From TrEMBL:
It comes from the Eukaryota. The keyword Transmembrane applies. Signal peptide: none annotated. One of its GO terms (molecular function) is trace-amine receptor activity. The gene is LOC114463004. PANTHER family: HISTAMINE RECEPTOR-RELATED G-PROTEIN COUPLED RECEPTOR (PTHR24249), TRACE AMINE ASSOCIATED RECEPTOR 19P-RELATED (PTHR24249:SF381). It is found in: Cell membrane. The chain crosses the membrane at residues 32-56, 68-91, 103-125, 146-165, 192-214, 248-270, 282-305. Its main location: membrane. InterPro entries: GPCR_Rhodpsn, GPCR_Rhodpsn_7TM, TAAR. It is a multi-pass membrane protein. This is Trace amine-associated receptor 13c-like. Keywords: Cell membrane, G-protein coupled receptor, Membrane, Receptor, Transducer, Transmembrane, Transmembrane helix.
Length: 328
């Protein structure tokens, strides 16, 4: 959240003198271009994820356990679209809002990021059961269980955040100068965050998807040679739709991992060595930009998403009974 650089030459609050933080100075044309590009990305993230939220919430045929998980991911991505605005404000290294807004931003970032990672883990578990144990999938993964898992995921994210940060109790007390937005994070808390929000989730996701990939490959070979696949539960047939969903969500998971790896690597390096502000800004924006990518993946890989978008654009969604439309 805090950014600093060696080439800062202007103060965030000139009237405060040395009490003020220093800001990054860029050519006006560069600053304007950056603000336009980043603001456009923010609007795009909010708009695309709002489409996903409306589509899954409106069309009853799409209200499956897997899509409820996509809805949870879209909600967290939608929130990140708004958080993008705060990150744009921090682009020159100055925080011009109140300490209260700093608390809100800090807390919201951790809650949403934790919920995103938790949802990706749930998606991996969902695909693991669907592909590796398809016979029992409808009874093991029900819409109500999916909803309860999502609620629990968000609740745990909120609880974890209040344990993780101390800025809530002491807003602004850890700022070294006026114009900062910093949170005190103990070394133990940092290690806890590394394990609970990176190492453990990523390990679970990778292990589950490796298993899904192995089963999917063996199933594809069996289908090709018309031989049944023997699983621990007997001879089961994995539905093509479940395999396709696993591929699509596999892309979502891989893109997500690609966006968080640089962020955590740079975060770890920042604790041991000096990291340039440009590197920090880049990995933060890469992490946030992932929220824009997910809906794009659905557009290209999910026919029902494209069909649903046509319903919204043509305003057919406003017609009576449109929620019952068969768009699968």
């Amino acid at each position: 959240i805090t950014m600093s650089t060696s080439d800062q030459t202007e103060l965030c609050y000139p009237h405060l003198g040395n009490a003020s933080c220093r800001r990054t100075v860029r050519p006006r044309s560069v600053s304007v271009l950056l603000y336009i590009i980043l603001s456009s990305i923010s609007v795009l993230i909010v708009t695309l994820n709002l489409m996903v939220i409306i589509i899954i919430s409106h069309f009853k045929k799409l209200q499956t356990p897997t899509n409820f998980l996509l809805l949870s991911l879209a909600v967290s991505d939608f929130c990140i679209g708004f958080l993008f605005i705060f990150q744009i404000l921090l682009m020159d290294g100055c925080w011009y809002l109140s300490a209260g807004w700093c608390v809100f931003y800090t807390v919201f970032v951790v809650v949403v990021a934790s919920a995103s990672i938790g949802t990706i883990v749930l998606i991996s578990i969902d695909r693991y059961i669907a592909v590796c144990d398809p016979l029992h999938y409808p009874t093991k993964v029900t819409p109500n269980r999916a909803k309860m898992s999502i609620i629990l995921c968000w609740f745990c994210s909120v609880f974890y955040t209040f344990v993780y940060i101390d800025v809530i109790k002491h807003p602004g007390i850890f700022n070294s100068c006026t114009g900062q937005c910093t949170a005190y994070i103990h070394l133990v808390a940092k290690l806890m965050h590394l394990f609970f929000c990176f190492i453990i989730p990523v390990t679970i996701i990778v292990l589950l998807y490796v298993r899904v990939f192995v089963v999917a490959v063996s199933q594809a070979r069996a289908m090709h040679s018309h031989v049944a696949v023997v699983t621990p539960h007997g001879s089961l047939k994995v539905y093509r739709s479940e395999l396709k969903a696993a591929r699509v969500l596999g892309v979502v998971v891989v893109v997500f991992l690609m966006s968080i790896f640089p962020f955590y690597i740079v975060s770890l390096l920042a604790g041991a060595t000096k990291v340039s502000s440009s590197s920090l800004v880049f990995v933060i924006f890469l992490y946030l930009f992932n929220s824009c990518v997910n809906p794009m993946i659905y557009v290209f890989l999910y026919p029902w998403f494209r069909k649903s978008l046509k319903y919204i654009i043509s305003l057919q969604i406003l017609k009576s009974g449109s929620s019952e439309a068969n768009i699968l």
